[in-house]
């Protein structure tokens, strides 16, 4: 079990499944949403419990994806592909150690010009 939440504590979540390794998305939407790039892990939607769900605000960034954030403090928390049975959660929003590692970088053709990716992980356009 893993727990986490937003900066102000209005939204808390619990994941009942073991956390998978995550990826870092460098697309322009994720860069704008997070201020850098978005590092997340995918969890089965059925294994996610959210407290303070009334504080979660959803932005539909494309016909297939909703992005969830705390309406009080603005913390970016969720990336929800609405036609799937899983949801991505920000790795930075978890409490303490996650046991997860990044396994790849995606949409690297959209990365910012102000940084380099030098960790040796696979990179996908």
TrEMBL record:
Keywords: Lyase, Metal-binding, Zinc
Gene3D superfamilies noted in UniProt: glutathione-dependent formaldehyde- activating enzyme (gfa)
Keyword Signal tagged: no
SUPFAM superfamilies xrefs: Mss4-like (SSF51316)
Range of residues in the leader sequence: none
InterPro entries noted in UniProt: CENP-V/GFA (IPR006913), Mss4-like_sf (IPR011057)
Domain CENP-V/GFA as annotated: residue spans: 2-116
Zinc found in the keyword field: yes
GO molecular-function terms, A-Z: carbon-sulfur lyase activity; metal ion binding
Family: Belongs to the Gfa family.
Protein's recorded name: GFA family protein
């Amino acid at each position: 079990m893993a727990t986490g939440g937003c900066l102000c504590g209005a939204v808390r979540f619990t994941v009942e499944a073991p956390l998978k390794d995550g990826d870092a998305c460098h697309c322009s939407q994720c860069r704008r949403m997070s201020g850098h790039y978005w590092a997340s892990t995918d969890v089965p939607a059925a294994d996610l419990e959210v407290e303070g769900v009334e504080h979660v605000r959803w932005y539909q960034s494309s016909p297939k994806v909703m992005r969830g954030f705390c309406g009080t403090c603005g913390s970016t928390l969720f990336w929800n592909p609405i036609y799937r049975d899983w949801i991505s959660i920000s790795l930075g929003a978890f409490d303490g150690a996650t046991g997860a590692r990044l396994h790849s970088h995606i949409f690297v053709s959209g990365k910012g010009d102000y940084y380099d990716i030098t960790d040796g992980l696979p990179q996908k356009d």
